[in-house]
Amino acid sequence: MTSSSSPSWSERFVVRDGVRLSCRDWGRPGEPGEQSDRGEQSDRGEQGGFRGDQGGFRGDVLLLHGLAGHAGEWDATARLLRDSGHRVVALDQRGHGGSDRNPSDGDVSRAAYVADAVAVIEQLGLERPVLIGQSLGGSTALLTAAAHPELPRALVLVEAGPDGAKPGVQEQIGGWLRAWPVPFPSRAAAVAYLGGGTDAVGEGWAAGLEERADGLWPRFDPEVMVRSLDENATRAFWDEWTALACPTLVVLGQGEHGGIIGAEEYAEMVRRQPALHGTSLPGTGHDVHLEQPGVLHRLIVDFLADGGSACARHTDACLGVHSTS
Fold this sequence. Notes:
This protein has 325 residues and is α/β, with parallel strands linked by helices. It has helices at residues 75-83, 110-123, 136-147, 169-178, 187-195, 199-206, 222-227, 230-234, 238-243, 263-272, 288-291, 293-306, and strands spanning 10-16, 19-27, 59-64, 86-91, 130-134, 154-158, 210-212, 215-217, 248-254, 277-282. Helix 3 links the parallel strand 5 (130-134) and strand 6 (154-158).
C-alpha cells in the first residue's frame, strides 16, 4: 500500500461486549498524528479536530467490507475520500481481519454486526457518518441505517440489497471458502486464485491474508462466515429497506458475470424507495470497489455534494437498459 500524497492510516480498536474490533482510521489531509501504512496506533485524542467546516471538511464516513473480506479492501476508496476532505474509518467486521476471529460471545447475527457499527461510530466520535458498505457490509449498513435513523447522513450500498431468502447461500459460500487451496505458497498464487481473472480483485483479497511460515492463510474461520449468513438464508430485509429515511445511493456491477442484484429486486427497491439513486458500472462485477475505486469515489462524492443529481435516479439505471460509467 502506497500513498503519493500523505501518510495513510492508523489502527484503532473498539471493544464491545468483550469483542475487539480493529479499524483503519484514515483521518483527513493535514491532520497531525497520522501514521504510516504499517497501521501503528495513533496517540491523538478522540476529538482530533475532525468536526467542523474549516478546511473544506466534508463529513465522516464509515466503510464496511463484505463477507470474508477485510478493511484493507477499501484502501483505494478510503484514500480518495480522505483526500476529498472526509474523515474515513474502515472497520474489520467481527470475525474478519484484525478483529476477533472467533467472537467471544459467539454472536455473528445481523444485530451483532449492527451493534458493532454503532459502537465504532460512538467510540471513535463519528458524527452522522455516511455509511458505505459492499455486499454483506452493505447489509450491515442498511440495517444500521434502518434501526438507527438518527445516525447516518446518507447510505451507499455497493452490490447490496434487501432481497432474500437465499436457502442455499450457506452451502454455496461455505463450499467455496473450504475449497481455498490454503496455505497459498505465494502472493502471486493467491492473487491468481482469488481474482478469478481480475488482478485488482485478486490483489484486494490477497491483501487480507496472513503470512505464516508455511504460506498465506485467510484471517477468518469459514464456519464463522457460514454462521453469519443464518438470517440471509432465511429472510429478506424489505421492511428495513422501506424504513430507510436517509438519502441512498446504490452502485451495482455490470460485468461479464454480472452483479448479484437482479432487475426484479432493483425495481422493487425503487418502488419502495422512489427517491433512490442508482447506477450500474459496465465492466465490473461484485467487487466494484476493487475494480473501479476511482469511479466509485466520484459517484459517492457527486451524490453527497448535490443530493444525487449527478447519478441517474431509478430511471432504468440498474435495469440493464442504461448505465453510468
